Amino acid sequence: MATFYFNKNTGTYHLNYTDPRTGKRCRPAVGTIDQAKKALIELKYKLQNGYFTSFQEIRAFIYFENYRDYLERIFKNKTATRYKTIIDNFSKWLESEYPRLKLHEITPIIISQYKDKRQADEKSNRTINTELYAISGGFEYAMEKGFIDKNPTRKVKKLKEDEQPVIYWEEDDCNRIVQYFYDKGDLENIYLGDIFTVFFNTGLRKDELRFLLKRQDFIIDGKGHGVIQIRTKKLPSGENWIPKWGKSRSIPVNQNTFDIIQKYIKKDNRSAYIFKYIYSPPEVIPKNYLRNRLITALKKMDIYSPGYTLHTTRHSFASAMANKPNVDLRAVQDILGHSSIETTMRYLHTSDQRKDYAINQISIVGK
Questions:
Q1: Contact 12/29 with Cβ under 8 angstroms?
Q2: Which stretches in the chain have pLDDT values below 50?
Q3: How many whole angstroms separate alpha carbon 261 and alpha carbon 204?
Q4: Residues 73, 75, 81, 86: is their CA dihedral positive or negative?
């Protein structure tokens, strides 16, 4: 029997049927209710006539229409608008050049053709690379959902562009910033010092910290170590919260961060959030509160630059960790939740410490 249903977690309609060839239950996403009705008619025809059916048969245009809506849920404002526009342009081009193309039929050659088309449109190399990055995110999400088994954009070479330097603070400046808040000594500044300490020691994004829940987002493993879990969840407000790109990850914490989180978990048993807003209500930290407090502090410390934002704490964590001589960059990638190792490598800079470590790995003794 074939039916369709609405999945609240993905925000889309899914087919529900048993593949006659494998005997496995299949639940591919198909988009809106109208798309689901049409897909169900086509599916029933295939089942009745012995056609082989699988997740890979989803149409590329339908998938990207659904993915476009998904972007609106995980990104806000300008980012959502920008990525949705990129996906719109790509899916419309696909439909015009390759009508009714299946998602799994998209090859690196097709992606390269689109890249060439954007170059012909006289778009900058940086713009085209950004578009490839956004499109790649769509294929990564499709892989996670089981619609495809490989990402065709991975074999498409990015265009050379002038690399923009990553803005970050050295560890000494990170310590100065945290100490600035602690030195104030009042309740709010100690609260801010604790939060920025967690930012600098975990690389959390702003909303990842704001929406940390006590019961499900912080666990203690069998060895007594603390682990922050970033994953899709339902907030106490009833809203579904989805991490960037829908990508779940686990972040082990050091002892300092462990102690801070434990303090706040025990502090207010009535709140579901670990870092409840100090001036509740509301319980959730207001969107721009941390950024405004950070910028104010930087200006008073006379180290402010227009390029500094709250996200600079994440850049600083990434840079500090990536540049430790014996740290595995793949581990850094996993902790940060980067889709590609190339993104992580942007934080790698050649320090004297790294050069000393590298040269001491060589020991050739001549006679």
A1: yes
A2: 52-56
A3: 13
A4: negative
Angstrom distance (rounded) from CA 128 to CA 134? 10
Output the CA angle 84-77-316, nearest 5 degrees.
100
For residue 215, what are its two tokens? 């019961």
Domain 171-352 has CATH 1.10.443.10: yes
For 16-46, how does the pLDDT look when each residue is reduced to its tens digit (9 = 90+)? 887 766 667 788 887 788 888 888 877 776 6
- Residue 341: HSE in the Cβ half-sphere, 13 Å Cα cutoff: 4
CATH superfamily entry for domain 3-155: Tyrosine recombinase, N-terminal domain (1.10.150.130)
Q: What percent of the chain has pLDDT over 90?
A: 44
Tens-place pLDDT, residues 151-161? 999 889 888 87
Q: Where in the chain is the domain with CATH 1.10.443.10?
A: 171-352
pTM of the model: 0.64
Q: What angle do CA 347, 351, 355 make, to 5 degrees?
A: 120
What is the Cα–Cα distance from 273 to 79, expressed in whole angstroms? 26
- What's the rounded Cα separation, in Å, for the pair 164 and 162? 6
Question: Residue 269 contacts by C-beta under 8 Å, 6 or more apart in sequence?
Answer: none
3-class secondary-structure state, position 337: coil
Each residue's pLDDT tens digit, 116-160:
999 999 899 989 999 999 999 899 888 877 788 789 998 898 888
Please give the structure tokens belonging to residue 27. 């639940």
What angle do helix axes 171-184 and 312-322 make, rounded to 10 degrees? 130
- CA 4 – CA 258 distance, rounded (Å): 44
**Residue intervals in the chain for CATH 1.10.150.130:** 3-155
d(CA 341, CA 351): 20
